[in-house]
Design a protein that fits this description.
The complex is a heterodimer of chains A (300) and B (302).
Chain A (H helix, E strand, L loop, with lengths): L7 E2 L3 H30 L2 H10 L2 H34 L5 H13 L2 H12 L6 H7 L7 H27 L2 H8 L4 H30 L2 H7 L9 H10 L3 H41 L2 H12 L1
Helix pairs in contact in A: 1-12, 2-12, 3-7, 3-9, 3-11, 4-7, 5-7, 5-10, 7-9, 7-10, 8-9, 9-12, 11-12
Chain B lengths: L5 H6 L4 H5 L3 H10 L6 H28 L2 H9 L2 H34 E2 L3 H7 L2 H4 L2 H12 L6 H4 L10 H26 L2 H9 L4 H30 L2 H6 L10 H10 L3 H33 L1
Classes of the chains: A mainly alpha (300), B mainly alpha (302).
Chain lengths: 300, 302
Amino acid sequence: MPAKPTTTAASTPLAAVLVAGAVGVVGLLIVVPLASVFYEAFARGVGAWWSALADDPDTRHAIWLSLTVAPVAVAINTVFGVAAAWLVARFRFPGRSLLISLFDVPFSVSPVVAGLALVLIFGRQGLLGPTLAWLDWKVIFAWPGLVLATTFVTLPLVVRELIPVMEAIGPEEEMAAVSLGASGWQVFWRVTLPNIRWALLHGIVLANARAMGEFGAVYVVSGHIAGATDTMPLRVEKLFQEYRQPASMAVASVLAGLALVTLVAKFVIERRLEAESRELEATRTLGDDQHTRQLEGAAA
Amino acid sequence: MPHQTPAMIALADSSAFATGAARPAARITRRRHAAVLPGFGTSLAITSLVVLALIVFPLAVLVLRAASLGPAGFLAAAWTPRARAAYGVSLSASVIAAVASSLLGLLVAWVLARVSFPGRRILDALVDVPLALPTAVAGLVYSALYVKKGWLGQWLVPLGIQGAYSYLGIVLVLVFVSLPFAIRVVQPVIESLDRDTEEAARILGASRTQTFLRVVLPAILPAVVTGFALSLARALGEYGSVVFISGNMPFKTEIAPVLIVARLEEFAYAEATTVAVLLLAMSITLLVIVNTLQQRLARNAQ
């Protein structure tokens, strides 16, 4: 049962001081840096900002690369997230808790460690290095490595969104659909997906933001080759190392803009999610006997 | 668990929801009818393929590669003076940042949960910025802010406070990246606190401080500790933002993840791997601690 909102107005001196403190913390640590990205990026005018992005072929390539790596990683995440959430939320089997803990591992492992592990497998001196060389496939210092590293760091994001929502909804509707003769895919497209769509979208938005912005894991597997394996965040770093701060800030401002778009999308989706979970709560509290009566009515 | 949006939970990467939040009624029906639902085989195949190929296999290869050095070889590679210094910087900066995040996070969470003021929703939304902003951008901007000519550096550097290319810089960006974790775990717990108990304490003559220390703090402490552990885990593994601001001076401002990359670029695989395994061990330990705490938290909430 959700508690009533128990906020007090900031009228007492203590409350006012606390609010000022919180605003100060968020302002200094978050707002000032965010504002300064855009200020620095546009300090020389929109024209200079645009030419820093568009006139540098390596920067153009980095933007293009980010736009091709992130969607693939997000797509893998979506398929995995839906399958894993279905598995964990709808079935009980040995090893289930262990599996759920494993979903969290990419969150707590340093991205650099993840990148290194991929190098140890796919790198020239790695476990599969000779095989890959024989097949003439390049994973490390190439696009597949970027996708693998990005997928690893974003892996928990979609599944973590879906599990609680699917657990809360419960399997009743899906079981009803099955008992009425629906096939597995019909249940998924007609019952499950409409129920989880906002949570899924939320996970995708978060995964996309993380995929676009990932640095550590991608840094290790990319080899950092300008015009070839530099994604946008890596380009930011390279320009920074070359003392081209304005150009670096311009690329950073694109990423920061993307982050803001993500937050707005997240905010909108969260309101939908909250509304739906309230609806669910309301139907649940209608009571079982009413539900039974409805069923009896339907039967008669 | 009332009041927590799934989003918050996921951001705090807890597993509490997944393990403990299903409604008992739903669970019983599911047990009885689980066999009815289709897709067990397919979802099990996809899930185990991805988890094994992407998580278990790479990390196992990492650990086996380190183990193949033997105990003496492992120690020789993992315990060099430069590596020891890097562990020291990583651990101390992360602990300081996690403590700062927990304290500042408690303040922000309290205000967001308890006080209504104009702009509260905006403040609430801004808290998520560090989760969405690429860490490279954070590192770049922080270093630009705290250098001598920067917005903040122009005031701080004359006072002798070097926020860029220093140990302090590392702590600053680590606080930035870990702050949302500290806030989002504590905020829903404060929201769900029963205010009657606090009022009762006040009516019975307890001061504000006494009420906070004796009534509120015990109730929110598990959440604060969880937030601390999450912040610490996040800070220990952070690379992107630190590499911009720390200056990466061996023995002084070099953190363990930066050392791993440096060794890797020198093709010193043994040392990179052993340092990575130690870092991995710390992360996994923290993950286990967080999961245990989260389960306790979920139990308390019920």
